[in-house]
Amino acid sequence: MSEPSPDVPAEAWSGVHRGPLREGEWVRLTDQKGRKHNFELIAGKRFFSNKGHLDHDELIGRDEGFTVTSSAGGQYLVFRPLLNEFVVSMPRGAAVVYPKDAAQIVALADIYPGARVVEAGAGSGALTCSLLRAVGPWGRVTSFELREEFAEVARRNVTQFFSAPEGGTHPAWDLRLGDLKDGLPALGAQVDRIILDMLDPWNCVDVVADALVPGGIVCAYVATTTQLSRIVETLRAHGGFTEPQPWESLVRDWHVEGLAVRPGHKMIGHTAFLVTARRMAPGEKPPRKTRRPAPGAYGPDYTGPRPADVPPPEQPDEA
C-alpha cells in the first residue's frame, strides 16, 4: 500500500486539503436522490435530516469518498466540496457567477499565476474564489463592491473556502467598498485583467482603458442582449481595443443507461453573455474591419455608439 499523500501546502492557498477529514473542514453529503448537504465538521455535533441523524465524529478522521448510514437508514456519499459545488450552495447576497461562466472567464480572459486582476463587483464571492485560485498567492485580485452587505457576504464566503485564519483572508485579495469608476484610477498602477460584472460596464470603458497594460484583457459579464450590444459597441467605438468577442456557453447533461443514451432533462442554459477585448498600445488602433456591417445595422433606428468609420444616418428631408 502506498504512503498517504501529504496535505496541499498551506502557502499555496488552494482551498483544497488531502488526507483524512478534520474538524473545521466543510464536507458535502449526497443522498440517494442526489440531494446535497454542506456543513462544517465540529466534534460532538450532529447532522439532522429526514433520514435521521449522523454524528460529525463518525466522519472526522476518515478519508473522503466513503458512504455513511444515518440513524434511520439513509445512505450518504461523503466528499469535500469542489469549488464548483461550493459556489452554487454557499450563502448569497447578490447572484453568483455560475461555474460554467467562471471557467470561461478564467480560461478566455487568460487569468494566470501572478496576474494583477480587478473585479467589479464582488457579488457573493463566487468568481472571486476562481480568480484567487488562478492568480495564486503571488498575484493580486482587487474587488470593488458598491454594497456593504454584499461585500460582507463575499468576505465570509471567500474566507470559508480558503480556510483563512480568523480575522484574516486570502493574501492576494483586496476587497474595496466603492465604485470602480472612482477606485480604479486611485489604484495608481496598471493591471493585467479587468472583469466587469455590473449593470453598466460601458460607463467604465475609459477608466478601464487607462488602467490596462498594453495587451491586457477586459472581460464583461452581462445578462441581457441590450447590455451586450451596448458594451460591444462602446468598446468598438473607443478605438483602443481589439474587436470585441461576444459569446455565451450552454451546458447540457446526458442520460446514459445501457441502450438509453439521450440528452438529459436538465440544462444550464442562458446565464450571461461574456465579452472580451484586448488593450492596444497607447496611440495604436486595430486594423479596420474589411467586412461591411449588415445593411441597416447602424440605420436611423440605431441610437448606440458608432464605430469611427460608420457615418451617422441620413436625416429624412423635412416636408
TrEMBL record:
UniProt KW Glycosyltransferase keyword: no
Domain tRNA (adenine(58)-N(1))-methyltransferase catalytic subunit TRM61 C-terminal: residue ranges: 88-257
Keyword field: Methyltransferase, S-adenosyl-L-methionine, Transferase, tRNA processing
Pfam family, one: TrmI-like_N
Domain of life from the UniProt record: Bacteria
Annotated catalysed reactions: adenosine(58) in tRNA + S-adenosyl-L-methionine = N(1)-methyladenosine(58) in tRNA + S-adenosyl-L-homocysteine + H(+)
E.C. numbers: 2.1.1.220
Residue numbers spanned by region Disordered: 278-319
Biased composition (Pro residues): 308-319
Family: Belongs to the class I-like SAM-binding methyltransferase superfamily. TRM61 family.
Assembly with partners or alone: Homotetramer composed of a dimer of dimers.
Name of protein: tRNA (adenine(58)-N(1))-methyltransferase TrmI
